[in-house]
Amino acid sequence: MDARTSLWRGRGMQALIGVTVLGFASYCLTLASLPVYAVTGGAAESTAGVVTAVFLVVTIAVQAAIPALTTRFGVGPVLVAGLLAMGVPSPLYVLDDGVVWISALSAVRGAGFAVLTVLGATLAAQVAPVARRGESIGLYGLAIAVPNLVAVPAGVALVLGDQVGWLSWLAASPVLGIPLVPLLVRSVGPQPGPGPAGTHRAAVLAALAPSAVLFLVTMAGGGVVTFLPIERPDGVLATVALLVFGITGAITRWRAGALSDRLGTRLLLPLALAVAAVGLVVTGIGLGTGDTWVLVGAAVFGAGFGATQNLTLVAAFVRAGEGGTTTASAMWNASFDAGTATGALALGFLAAGIGLDWTYVLVAALLAAALPLASAAARVGSSVPQARQSSAGSG
Q1: How far apart are CA 378 and CA 197, in angstroms?
Q2: Is 118 part of a structural domain of the chain?
Q3: Most buried by CB count within 10 Å: which residue of 166, 330, 375, 378?
Q4: Residue 8's pLDDT band (boundaries 50, 70, 90)?
């Protein structure tokens, strides 16, 4: 496949996008809506984030085991099991709105989500030539961002409209992706075998800095998607803000990949993080000054949020090298979900004390303080020699 051939035309890419859209539609439908569902069932607002936190804690725990599971059972069977675990329990949400029940179902779904996230990112790196890896990851990111664009606000609207039954059945969508798995697995060929001793540890260390940057920005994102609908439950502000957030995030996550193939990540990653910080400040200020500024802030934050996701994944793969792709994917995804869980839980307690507006401002300051880390994360140094063999797309 040369630079003039559209990656969209590859059957493997089409299968990857199909599986990803169906899997992440389930995740996005429930991400912001389940905490709202718990609050309508009588849960305290400060504990509503427990639902999301349980889902993501299980996800993080299982993600660490994915490389070993795929080595033993193969990518196809593990991916099918993950899609089943995400989709089959979802219709049962309608049975009870208690935090314990919602959390129990979410724990099972979290295990499936762990499989989808780690293998999805790994396959995105393998389904295209190395020189076009950023573009491939961008398309994979678009397949994630489109459900985020539509399903996050739709899920909130369904719960606020007392349509939990529809939400529950729509969240079973991952099972529809199972027929696409054989084509996807065939398109990437045999998976690389286990590397020499120390390869796993080296890949973890190589992916650490990009993953730390990702943790911070997803912590901020978790705080936005979880608590903005709770802070503003009346009217359409929260739904529109999440929609705007999703639109800008979808565009930048998609286009940042192809841009990184040409320009690298050294300048783009710190810039993306700075944009996210500015957007979060504006969102916080808007909560106290006017709805228009909330929407502006959500748009700007979404742009930085989407670009940072793509660029940190590209940087992690480049730094880890070909032999560390699956480990780097597990590390990156664990950081993504740990950040989202932290934002969904810890920021709720912080907001209960100082208000959501000041919480967003403080988190934005933390993002700004991490700009030197973002610069370091985009560099490939002598400590990651394997990455030099595949660094065509990195700065």
Answers
A1: 26
A2: yes
A3: 330
A4: confident
Position 334: which residue type? A
What is the CATH classification number for the domain harbouring 37?
1.20.1250.20
> Do the beta carbons of residue 83 and residue 182 sit within 8 Å?
no
pLDDT, tens only, 128-170: 888 888 889 999 988 988 887 788 889 989 998 989 999 999 9
Q: Which two tokens stand for residue 9?
A: 């035309």
Tokens linked to 106: 């979410």
Rg (CA), the chain: 19
Kindly report, residue by residue over 216-266, the tens digit of the pLDDT: 999 999 999 888 888 877 668 888 898 899 899 989 988 898 888 888 888
User: CA-to-CA distance for 316 and 329, rounded, in angstroms?
Assistant: 8
224/227 Cα distance (integer angstroms) = 6
What are the tokens at 152? 């996050």
Please give the single-letter amino acid code of residue 129.
P
Total domain count for the chain? 1
Mean pLDDT confidence for 34-42: 87
User: What residues make up the domain containing 336?
Assistant: 7-390
Residue 33 lies in a domain: yes
pTM score over 0.70: yes
- Between CA 271 and CA 320 the distance in angstroms is 22
In a domain, 62, yes or no: yes
**Residue written as token pair 């996210």:** 276
Cα angle for residues 366, 229, 236 (degrees, 5° grid): 125
Query: Is 395 within the bounds of a domain?
Result: no
